[in-house]
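User: Before I run my own analysis I want an independent prediction to cross-check against. Here's the chain; please return only the structure tokens and, at the end, one sentence I can use as a sanity check.
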Amino acid sequence: MPHDSPSLDKLLENPRLWRGRNPAQGMAGLASGLASGYERLDHHLPGGGWPQHALTEILTEHYGIGEIRLLMPALAALSRPEHSAEFSESGWIAWVAPPFQPYPPALQQWGIDLSRMLIVRPKTDKEVLWSAEQALSSGTCAAVLLWPDRLDDQAGRRLQLAAAKGNSWAIAFRPLTARSEPSAAALRIELQAQASGTCLSIIKNRGGRPAVLHDIF
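Assistant: Structure tokens:
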């Protein structure tokens, strides 16, 4: 059926419009992802890796169950010169309001270039979100990790837009209680510690499907 209507053409250009596709097309046409370093996880992510220039949310029951380890291979790759060349200045990796002090020897062991690390400690949650948004949109940060007390849908959309504007990767850490809240994130992952290891659940996957991966580490 032809569609020469200007209004229809404008509608079809809307990035929020879902279009059906032949399953045989697989992941064709999707933007390339940033390899996570975990082959089983990349298999379930559209583009074969973390969604770039977008917001990822990681939900945990408590900190220290592997949420940082999960990101290390990708962050190490972003800190290398070939990736920082994409930015007008050094490709910083910003940590906004971390609930702990990052341990430099461990980061170096993963291959993180410490000269590209930036730790920001805002005083209020409003300042946490503002700092993250500014860092993401600046065009000088390869990735921005943040630990907000709250992240409503409007704030999430602002982070998503800022990440797209600055070609940066936003990673927000949130409690499991936030699972029922609306989210603008392109990807939402839930981590839970189990006797057999860390269980990773993909609960929102733009362009893909939910999945559960046991003993990911």
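Sanity check: The helical segments are 6-12, 39-44, 67-78, 81-84, 104-110, 125-137, 153-165.
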